[in-house]
């Protein structure tokens, strides 16, 4: 992404990567592509402290995972908005669309519940059936393994 930023005319480039191997690879790729002066920092963006007034106009990230909420996406982008970017900065990606399908499954429901040795049932307050009923663990077979 830093090479692309350079090819688009970015005057300053700061790449932040927490993974040691990927950080080394980024340095090598920048060098092989003749991108001089790009700053490559091996750390988490939370730990990075920009020099006075050295805030980003554009923040490009590949932190998104398959569901958009893993890998600390929300706290990372919020921190970047508050500390690392100008008020008018553009973020890429700027939004995400999530799709969901509702599923009712005793097997999935049971994976969010357990019975203590005393016989008390515990289950997540967020898992319910469509009609509000709760499944009982008594009399239901254990979930099968795939």
UniProtKB/TrEMBL annotation:
InterPro entries found in the cross-reference section: Arg_MeTrfase (IPR025799), SAM-dependent_MTases_sf (IPR029063)
Gene Ontology CC terms: nucleus
UniProt keyword terms in alphabetical order: S-adenosyl-L-methionine
GO MF: histone methyltransferase activity; protein-arginine N-methyltransferase activity
Source taxon at top rank: Eukaryota
Signal sequence, start to end: none
SUPFAM superfamilies the UniProt entry points to: S-adenosyl-L-methionine-dependent methyltransferases
Stored PANTHER family: PROTEIN ARGININE N-METHYLTRANSFERASE, PROTEIN ARGININE N-METHYLTRANSFERASE 9
Stated name of the protein: Uncharacterized protein
């Amino acid at each position: 992404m830093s090479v692309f930023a350079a090819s688009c005319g970015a005057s300053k480039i700061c790449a932040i990567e927490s993974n040691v191997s990927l950080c080394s690879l980024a340095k090598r790729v920048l060098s092989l592509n003749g991108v001089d002066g790009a700053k490559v920092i091996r750390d988490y963006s939370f730990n990075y402290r920009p020099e006075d007034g050295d805030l980003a106009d554009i923040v490009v990230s590949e932190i998104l995972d398959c569901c958009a909420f893993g890998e600390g996406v929300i706290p990372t982008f919020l921190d970047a908005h508050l500390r690392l970017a100008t008020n008018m900065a553009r973020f890429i990606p700027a939004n995400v669309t999530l799709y969901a399908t509702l599923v009712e499954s005793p097997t999935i429901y049971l994976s969010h519940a357990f019975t203590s040795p005393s016989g008390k049932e515990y289950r997540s307050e967020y898992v319910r059936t469509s009609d509000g009923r709760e499944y009982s663990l008594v009399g239901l077979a254990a979930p099968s393994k795939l």
